[in-house]
Amino acid sequence: MDSQQQFLRKSEEAKDIYLPHLSADPVVFGFDKSELKVLLLQMTYRKQWLLPGGYVKKDEDLDDAAKRVLRDRAGISDVYLEEFAVFGKNKRSEFYFEDFDDSLWHKQRFVSIGYYALYNPDNADLIIDEYSDKCEWIYLSQLNEIELAMDHREIIEKALLALRERISYKPIGYNLLPEKFTLSELQKLYETILGKELNRGNFYRKIKNLGILRKLDEQRRGGAHKSPDLYSFDEENYKKALENGLNNW
């Protein structure tokens, strides 16, 4: 059975389970080697790359659907997801399903709710679902080298803009950095997301005043220069800042 026939068979099984006009598309960012990555699937059908999203079940809350599709399609769970935009241009999926008859329910117009998430790639034990050939972290700098389906490139770009806006009022880093990190490593994360350099003294002063860090009695060993202090996030204060926003940033 070829990929098109396989897709049609699975489509018939799914049409009574899911809402035909609503999907959730999580954009999961990771941080590695001073670069941002995004989690993508390469589909068996058409071999194009997609976000690990999916349709919403008829008896399911939207946020629960986003968490379920991310778990089922990529193997990622216990991730903080935040809704950031709605995508609903007319005929946004028509070209992707051009090989099928117009009666295919996937080919009809559907609206996608965009979520973004932050996740450490080192903590991910990725899976490949029945619709995909690959599930991989792709550097943002490499996105122009692959073929993204539908409007998923636009969704990724808007997710990055939303993440940049979020920095001004909510903390980041808890799900992207290792448990212990230096201030320079945290600054590099902020600079990578913002796409610009930050003044070291100003950044250190502001980040310390937020009260979300805990200084450890340890230093980063092995460098040629003075060993920098190590920090971890104060989990309780970090969660409060996520809920209430930052006051002194």
Report on the structure:
Strands 1, 2, 3, 4, 5, 6 and 7 form a 7-stranded mixed beta sheet that branches. A two-stranded antiparallel sheet has the order 8-9. It is elongated and about 65 Å long. The termini are far apart. Helices cover 29% and strands 26% of the residues. Strand 1 and strand 2 (35-43) form a beta hairpin. By secondary structure, it is α+β, with helices and mostly antiparallel strands. The model has no long low-confidence stretch (mean pLDDT 88). It is built from 6 helices and 9 strands; from the N terminus they run αββββαβββαααββα. The longest helix has 15 residues, at 152-166. Residues 19-164 form the Nudix hydrolase domain. Pfam families: NUDIX, WHD_NrtR. This is NUDIX domain-containing protein. It comes from Chryseobacterium kimseyorum.
Average pLDDT number? 88
Give the fraction of residues assigned to helices: 25-40%
Number of DSSP helical runs:
6
Shape verdict: elongated
* Biggest sheet overview: 7 strands, mixed
Task: Give the ordered list of helices and strands.
Answer: HEEEEHEEEHHHEEH
Strand content: 25-35%
Domain Nudix hydrolase: 19-164
InterPro entries: NUDIX_hydrolase-like_dom_sf (IPR015797), NUDIX_hydrolase_dom (IPR000086), WH-like_DNA-bd_sf (IPR036388), WH_DNA-bd_sf (IPR036390), WHD_NrtR (IPR054105)
Protein name: NUDIX domain-containing protein
